[in-house]
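Render this sequence as a predicted structure.
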Amino acid sequence: MKKLLFILWQWSWGLAQTLAGAVIWLLSRRCRHFWYHGAYVTVWKHRSSAALGMFIFLADEPDLVQKRLLVHEYGHTVQSLLLGPLFLPLVGLPSVLRALTWNGGKRSYFSAYPEKWANRLGEWVTNEKAPK
């Protein structure tokens, strides 16, 4: 029942990002896929991971790194549930800008908004560890 509510909420309140995720999923249908707490995960060959609505696109990394990235990206799906149509301007855009401008300095990529918030939400919902 929770999975069904998650999916219905993403396809209504989070329609814009879920629709964008569905298009990317269609283009990535030859990759490996699995379900994770109601989200549909695609493991792809890109170096970065992303979440759009109920779709998570996960970098093909070693197991522990990949698992923590999955928890983080799941946090973005929770942000989508909370923010709905505001997700793309309030989380998606800042997240993309952070990824494009982050230079690997002393501070972790996950130490600032909206990544830190995604980590906390992912850990809270899944009871698993996210990257630091």
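Summary. The beta strands are 32-36, 39-44, 50-52, 55-59. Helices lie at 2-12, 15-27, 63-83, 87-101, 115-126.
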